Design the sequence.
């Protein structure tokens, strides 16, 4: 087993701007935009247990309100739901970044 860090910078349309990659050169996560301000991150490989995750919005300058935020309301070993919101507290498509840290099995 080994501790790994999975990270990504995600564009508001759900495409990956940048992120961590596996040894094969592919991203070790995928992202799908499932609705306004709603995204699903899938970790590959899945973590052995629930990882720790944090994130922030990016690309909006210094005029953001504290309600302009990103939350992770549902988290499991293999995926996380992400909500991004605007200054009114409504879900809104936003660029965001995340870091997830946890333990995975390592092939011998």
Sequence:
């Amino acid at each position: 087993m080994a501790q790994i860090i999975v990270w990504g910078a995600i564009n508001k349309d759900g495409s990956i701007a940048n992120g961590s990659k596996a040894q094969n050169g592919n991203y070790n996560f995928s992202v799908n935009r499932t609705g306004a301000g709603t995204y699903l991150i899938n970790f590959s490989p899945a973590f052995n247990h629930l990882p720790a995750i944090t994130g922030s919005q990016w690309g909006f300058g210094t005029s953001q309100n504290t309600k302009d935020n990103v939350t992770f309301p549902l988290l499991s070993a293999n995926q996380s739901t992400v909500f991004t919101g605007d200054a009114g507290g409504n879900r809104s498509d936003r660029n965001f970044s995340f870091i997830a840290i946890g333990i995975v099995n390592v092939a011998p």
Summary: DSSP finds no helices and eight strands in the chain. The first strand starts at residue 2 and ends at 10.
